[in-house]
């Protein structure tokens, strides 16, 4: 397999770290881009993705785009900042991909769908319910517009992610451990109506590596999601609590969306059919429960 030079944007984040580690472990040369972390850790190369002049200097044979504000509530609270990361930055990187000839894989989200017609194939019509989904869809359209001009660009949509975190709130899944472990008497309402397909960042990293090394052109849009049955966030707390041998009497099932909450689709299951047809392994290394068992023991 030919060694490639890969630039990972947002490399200090949950997904970015996993992607960089997997490419390095499998023999590629990786430039790990970060902004605030770069001055504190020599493993990272400093780059502010919102600095157009700095971004213009970016070049790589292959490139994985993983810089995004994934939490929809944050997108709603600071739409201008989130729009720059989720839409304007990908547009800039896509234009560079077209100019310089590298492959850009843009990471998008299942939240581009309204959750009413799952499972979703790659050609399903997007209909996001909230600003985060709309901004990511804008990013998709921007990068795919460059693909129409001849750029090597693919969108990979993924669902809610979890994995090895530096702090639990890096992931909307891992942070549930904090809720389970809070045995102070405080009660928590937990979503038991929106079904999710929590996917480990190590599996996403493997898929990205395989796609980057496929000896054939990639289609415009692909989906990857854990093949495991759906879980609500309440279901996830039950599994995490069992691993930790802790009671969850303080966690209250919430069977409908709270009034005034950021709209969230109820079921955005992504079909990995197109990815499987490319010959990419769409399985997962460990089940959700088994990963938590090994993670807690580590």
Automatic annotation (TrEMBL):
Molecular function terms from GO: methionine adenosyltransferase regulator activity
Q: Which domain of life is it from?
A: Eukaryota
The terms describing its cellular component in GO are: methionine adenosyltransferase complex
Give one GO biological process term.
S-adenosylmethionine biosynthetic process
The record ties this protein, via InterPro entries, to:
dTDP_dehydrorham_reduct, NAD(P)-bd_dom_sf, RmlD-like-bd
Recorded hits in Pfam families, A to Z, give: RmlD_sub_bind (PF04321)
Domain called RmlD-like substrate binding: residue spans: 5-280
The molecule here is called dTDP-4-dehydrorhamnose reductase
> Organism source for this protein?
Kwoniella newhampshirensis
């Amino acid at each position: 397999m030919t060694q490639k030079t890969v630039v990972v944007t947002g490399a200090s984040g949950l997904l970015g770290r996993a992607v960089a580690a997997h490419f390095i472990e499998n023999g590629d040369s990786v430039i790990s881009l970060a902004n605030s972390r770069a001055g504190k850790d020599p493993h990272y190369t400093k780059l502010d993705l919102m600095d157009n002049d700095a971004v213009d200097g970016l070049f790589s044979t292959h490139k994985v785009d993983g810089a995004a504000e994934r939490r929809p509530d944050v997108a709603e609270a600071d739409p201008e900042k989130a729009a720059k990361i989720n839409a304007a930055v990908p547009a800039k990187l896509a234009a560079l991909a077209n100019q310089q000839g590298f492959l850009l894989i843009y990471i998008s989200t299942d939240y581009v769908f309204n959750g009413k017609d799952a499972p979703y194939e790659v050609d399903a019509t997007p209909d996001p319910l909230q600003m985060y989904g709309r901004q990511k869809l804008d990013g998709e359209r921007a990068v795919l517009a460059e693909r129409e001009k001849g750029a090597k660009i693919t969108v990979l949509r993924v669902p809610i992610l979890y994995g090895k975190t530096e702090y639990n709130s890096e992931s909307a899944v891992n942070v549930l451990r904090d809720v389970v472990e809070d045995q102070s008497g405080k009660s928590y309402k937990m979503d038991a109506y929106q079904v999710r397909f929590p996917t480990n960042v190590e599996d996403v990293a493997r898929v990205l590596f395989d796609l980057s090394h496929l000896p054939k052109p990639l289609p415009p849009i692909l989906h990857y999601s854990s093949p495991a049955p759906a879980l609500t966030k309440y279901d996830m707390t039950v599994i995490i609590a069992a691993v930790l041998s802790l009671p969850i009497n303080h966690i209250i099932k919430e069977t409908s969306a709270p009034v005034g909450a950021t709209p969230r689709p109820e079921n955005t299951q992504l079909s990995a059919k197109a990815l499987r047809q490319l010959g990419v392994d769409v399985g997962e290394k460990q089940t959700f429960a088994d990963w938590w068992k090994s993670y807690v023991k580590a």
